[in-house]
From TrEMBL:
InterPro entries, per database record: Class-I_Pyr_Nuc-Dis_Oxidored (IPR050151), FAD/NAD-bd_sf (IPR036188), FAD/NAD-binding_dom (IPR023753), FAD/NAD-linked_Rdtase_dimer_sf (IPR016156), Lipoamide_DH (IPR006258), Pyr_nuc-diS_OxRdtase (IPR001100), Pyr_nucl-diS_OxRdtase_dimer (IPR004099), Pyr_OxRdtase_I_AS (IPR012999)
Additional observations: The active site is a redox-active disulfide bond.
Family: Belongs to the class-I pyridine nucleotide-disulfide oxidoreductase family.
Official protein name in the record: Dihydrolipoyl dehydrogenase
Pfam families, A to Z: Pyr_redox_2, Pyr_redox_dim
PANTHER family: DIHYDROLIPOYL DEHYDROGENASE, DISULFIDE OXIDOREDUCTASE
Protein keywords: Disulfide bond, FAD, Flavoprotein, NAD, Oxidoreductase, Redox-active center
GO MF, any single term: dihydrolipoyl dehydrogenase (NADH) activity
Names of required cofactors: FAD
UniProt source species: Ammoniphilus resinae
Domain FAD/NAD(P)-binding: 11-329
Amino acid sequence: MVVGEFTTEVDVLVIGAGPGGYVAAIRAAQLGKSVAIVDKDEVGGVCLNRGCIPSKALISAAHQYETMSSASEMGIQVEGVKVDFNKVQEWKNGVVKKLTGGVASLLKANKIQRLKGEALFVNENEVRVIDNYEANRYRFNHCIIATGSRPVELKAFPFGGRILSSTEALNLSEVPKSMVVIGGGYIGIELGQAYAKLGTKVTVIEGTDSVLPGFEKEITRFVNRKLKKLGMDVVTGAVAQGAEQTESDITVTYTAKGEEKKVTADYVLVTVGRRPNLDDLGLEAIKMKLTDKGLIEVDQQCKTSVANIYAIGDIVPGPALAHKASYEGKVAAEVIAGQASAVDYKAIPAVVFSDPEVASVGLNETEAVEQGFQVVTGKFPYAANGRALSMNAGDGFVKLVGDQESGLILGAQIVGPEASNLIAEVGLAIEMGTTLEDISLTIHAHPTLGEMVMEAAESALGLPIHQAPSK
């Protein structure tokens, strides 16, 4: 029995407090709206609590351990390097706690009302927020749905026991001796590499012909080289069929090249995609229009088929990226406030925190050709960059894709250390309509990794300084 039901009115109700929802709430409050935000879990959503941030903390710890263990290459002898995984987890959780506390403080500073519970649409202007046995009604002028997504669960590999989603994989109490990763996308490769660096024997089973599908082969070959160096077994063109668990291990059966094989490990990590969280919102009550893939259909202003309701993030078409959700959240809030905002995904970056890091923005060379551009490219290797070599990090390259006629920068692909940071300059360049010449004329500090962007632009213009001229 639900008791104590009251009705409260707000200008904007945001459902979901992840990187899309809390950003939308703050921007709406900044623009003068009374705002309430509802979530059944912690602020920060999956990204901050069970995804982006804790995974990067674990990756960073693993990288530190690897660096210390191999410091002899630089003449530094380090003995007795050990991993106290309980302390690693404690440190990781401390990072998450600090950031969730920061988000909570920002919501409070912007006078945003926080509501705990699950939202259920009653009609186009009202939801019930249910928390255990209590329920309250909230009437709104506008609503922004930002409920995010969850890991896809395979029928043959139900989560539980020794079958893990990324959430459980981030919270293991000890470093496993062995692990099978089903799915060689960004989550599988990031977490697989992290555990491999900490000493786990990792086997990756990927259905396509390459890990990190969607990235060009000239990029993924650097990642594959590192996977091999870490002792990881990568099986491509393979399909996982099922698993048998015991008290001590789990055996996965898979087929590859028409042959059935088995591999036994301590755990199986399933990373085959994410599913939108739309199940229990009562969208049928407001006749919300969905796409054929079960996502909420939106226009360029994040408006749904219901005039006063907006949707952002993983529940709408496009890549499931935290920064995409945050961007859309600001657009939705600004439209509600009467501004002429609209989404433009031309310069949205994609980053994989693999080793080496991978980042892209705009069009790759193949896409640019397919769209009819007369393409010119410039490429500069980490191996020719002074700062990269002084970091003992000479693997990778920066590649710029431009339009030969106008000189405009169309895109970039980077593989190597700090690719996630270097890509921002090119994103800005695309957003501003910058040319290859503009980049080449911009003075970059020396010695830095950022110089490679300038060097790649000079290469595209046929005027490379630190590369021999092409024959």
